[in-house]
Amino acid sequence: MQSVTPYLLYEDCDAALDFLARAFGFEEVLRYTGEQGYVNHAEMKVGREGRIYMGDPGDHYKSPKNLGQETCGIYVEVVGDTAVALAPVSPAEATALLDELRIAPLLGRPALAGIISRFSHLLVDLPELAEIEINPLMTSPDGAIAMDARARLGV
């Protein structure tokens, strides 16, 4: 059985550990507190097999909230704008695909083209990968951030 254990970053990991225990019945398994007094790694479990890892991200962490962006939202596809190619594609081929879209001027194309290219190679290299989704993927001229992702392996 394959499993994925999320590693979550909290600016106040102590408070997150307390909240998850009180609100959802998570049980603390371990906690490492750094010399500066903050939790640099912790593990919690819920139920028989549910686990999460967490820690303080440190001073370098730039969350969407700290960058003045949304931390949640509703995104709806209204364009119906698509481009298709066989995998794998190079970053240049991915850029050409993106340029076919009516919404191309709104996209962070260099970062998105790189991600599309790497995903296309991943699909070719791992044929057991049945599904993969990143939603939402936030792009800008400075790069990209995957806010949520999931993958499913085929049997």
Outline the structure in words.
The chain is an alpha+beta fold. It folds into 2 domains: 1-61, Signal recognition particle alu RNA binding heterodimer, srp9/1, CATH 3.30.720.120; 68-155, ATP-grasp fold, B domain (D-amino Acid Aminotransferase, Chain A, domain 1, 2-Layer Sandwich). It has 3 helices and 8 strands. The strands form 3 sheets. Strands 1-4-3-2 form a 4-stranded mixed β-sheet, covered by helices on one side. It has a two-stranded antiparallel ribbon with strand order 5-8. The longest helix has 17 residues, at 109-125. 10% of the residues are buried. Residues 71-78 have low confidence and may be disordered.
CATH architecture of the largest domain: 2-Layer Sandwich
Top-tier CATH class of the largest domain: Alpha Beta
Measured as a percent range, the helix fraction is: 10-25%
- Described by its quaternary structure, the protein is single chain
Radius of gyration equals: 19 Å
User: Percent of residues in beta strands?
Assistant: 25-35%
Number of strands: 8
Structural class label: alpha+beta
The mean pLDDT is 79
What is the CA-CA span between the terminal residues?
A: 10 Å
H/E element order: EHEEEHHEEEE
Q: Biggest sheet: strands, sense, closure?
A: 4 strands, mixed
**CATH homologous superfamily of the largest domain?**
ATP-grasp fold, B domain
Please mark out the parts with pLDDT under 50 across 5 or more consecutive residues, or reply none. 71-78
Domain count: the total is 2
How many helical elements? 3
Per the CATH scheme, the topology name of the largest domain is D-amino Acid Aminotransferase, Chain A, domain 1
Q: What gross morphology would you assign? A: elongated
Q: Taking strands numbered 1, 2, ... along the chain, how are they ordered across the largest sheet?
A: 1-4-3-2
